[in-house]
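Appendix B, record 7
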Amino acid sequence: MSLASALNTTKATLSNTALQSSVVSNNISNASSTSYNRRAAVTTTDTSTGAIVVKVERAEDEALLKQALAATSDDAGKQKFLDGMNSLSVVLGGEEYTAAPSTYLASLQNALQTYAASPSDVTLASAAVSAASDVANALNTSTQAVQQLRTDADGEISDTVDKLNQLLSDFEKANNEVTSATAAGRDANNAIDQREGLLKQISGIVGISTAVRTNNDVVIYTTDSTTLFETTARKISFEPMAAYDANTTGNSIYIDGVAVKTGEGSNTSAKGSLPALLQLRDEVYPGYQSQLDEIARGVMGAFAETDSGGTSIAGLFTTKDGSEPDFTTAEVVPGLAGLITVSSEAKATPVKLRDGNIAGDTPNTDGSTGYSDLLFKYASALNTQIEFDPKAGISTNVTLLSFATDSAGWVEEYRSNATSSAESTSAMLTKSTEAYSNSTGVNLDEELIQMLDIEQSYKAAAKLMSTIDELLKTLMEAAN
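Structure tokens (predicted):
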């Protein structure tokens, strides 16, 4: 080997080790970053200069990335749905159902039976009317809470849509940087890292799939094949509602003019947080509201009185706005649970509950203080089978107490299934993330070993450079 050839080889080696050490140092400094993929300085052999650096490559694993994105979408949907079910469970008063209508109905039945045993006791009459007020208040409070949950979900949808639009805008900038750098032969790895990090965030909002085109250009589709990004970001539109009641229907979310589908089932099929929020707002919360409304209708019917024409009319329970809902037909009256209240006549004169003349004609024609037939009838009515609207989503031919209990059980079943599903997807996300990290992330031990190898290469090149220097000095002295 000539001195010139040796000198060129040494210079190339020093240049290589400088770049390799820079790459390894960058890997080590970003070892804790979840949005950074390991870099590697790839070299090849040149006949004149030896090993030369060709380019810096970014570690990639397309299959594991797709799996991680899918796991992110699944877990985000399940976790958001579970959060919503936990919030609904709070409305019931937690696992003990302390605020559930079924709890207050059972207390009302006990109060009626106690009063029926001593129908002349005014104190017991007041206690029974007070227990009835607790039932009405429970239905009112639950309705307010459920509609507030819908309002909160709607507000969260609006915020999430804004976030998704921003993420897509940021993705467009990163994707443009990647495609232009790739076309020009520049290093696009940092922009690819940024773009991948945005993909992970987007997948937590809505399920996605991707396709790669010329110059590493990426296209994003939703899991139901709606285009989310292609060259430019598609617009996600949504009109939030200021407030909700039982008659309010929430607006849809549109991606490029296509409505986003809601999740389905108690373990939810939602991919991402948006479909889960839609399911909570439009199906789960309204479903429980319908059950509350059916309980209110059943309560009004159980304590109905009879007018002079023999027609059933509202007795102990009536409405705040004076409306006269049909409580005899098995059909949901939207919002009735928020309107139900105890008659002011019963509050003013509790013994009218015993006599059945709160609004109707009393069957206690003798005015006997020992009359208890109606009280036993009311208590028994809570355990008498009646028809319920199938739209409420639970039992259709059961007692009022059983229906109220089934309603609480319906919430608990959804919450239990959501909990199990969320635990499974959380474990899957952890495994997928770990697998992708192991494949593309930075291993400090490996980087330190590589740093030692680079150090040895540098030492060898430095020693060779020193030898060449000595030889050149010798040649110069000989020439003189």
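Remarks on this record: The chain has two domains: 3-59+441-479, 66-209+238-429. The chain has a mean pLDDT of 90.
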